[in-house]
Amino acid sequence: MVHAHLLHKRLHFMRRDPLTGLLTRDGWNRAADRIIRRHNRAAVLLIDLDGFKTVNDDYGHEAGDAVIAASGQRLAAWCGENGIAGRLGGDEFVVVVRDGHRVAAALADLRALLREPVDYHSGRLSVGASIGAAQVADLEVPTREAAMRAADAAMYRVKGHTRGGRRPLAAEVSAADAS
Question: Rounded to whole angstroms, how far apart are CA atoms 110 and 70?
Fold first, then answer.
């Protein structure tokens, strides 16, 4: 019985990113699959921190860790009871939300939250965020894998173009984009 408890505890920690406390890819995939099966209005978001490499290069990895940890906390708070955030690795995060119809209005708030400076020693560190979103129900194949591919394509459209020198806040994918 003690061994089973220890094994369960070890598996729990293996599915958690030690820096952010968020689910790792495997743990997030399992949770996202459950949410998508149960909630037909689910959406998947992929988030990439812009300017993170500069923070690491200019201030060191400890500063980068502070930005990653703060970003993880902010994503978890933003999700609340409506979803689950995970860390894919590096400066890439993923979110699944149960009610994706409210996501479009909330993407600007999420981007602003992630852009808030992080206090570090006697200074403040700032990064931006590129966010791609996909409504699972809008996809030809309504699966987590398809939603992640669609959200990834939407995120790279955000990274790839600017409007008057400014990036759009976020991109959502339509069913036509996902095919």
Answer: 13
Give the number of C-alpha atoms closer than 13 A to the C-alpha of residue 129, restricted to the C-beta side. 28
Digit-coded pLDDT (tens) for 37-48: 999 899 999 999
* 91 catalytic per annotation: yes
Does domain 2-178 match CATH 3.30.70.270? yes
Active-site position among 91, 99, 109, 177 = 91
Sorted by where each begins, the domain ranges of the chain are 2-178
pTM: 0.83
The strand pair at 92-97 and 43-50 is best described as antiparallel
C-alpha–C-alpha distance, residues 145 and 169, integer Å: 24
Name the DSSP class of 29. Answer: H
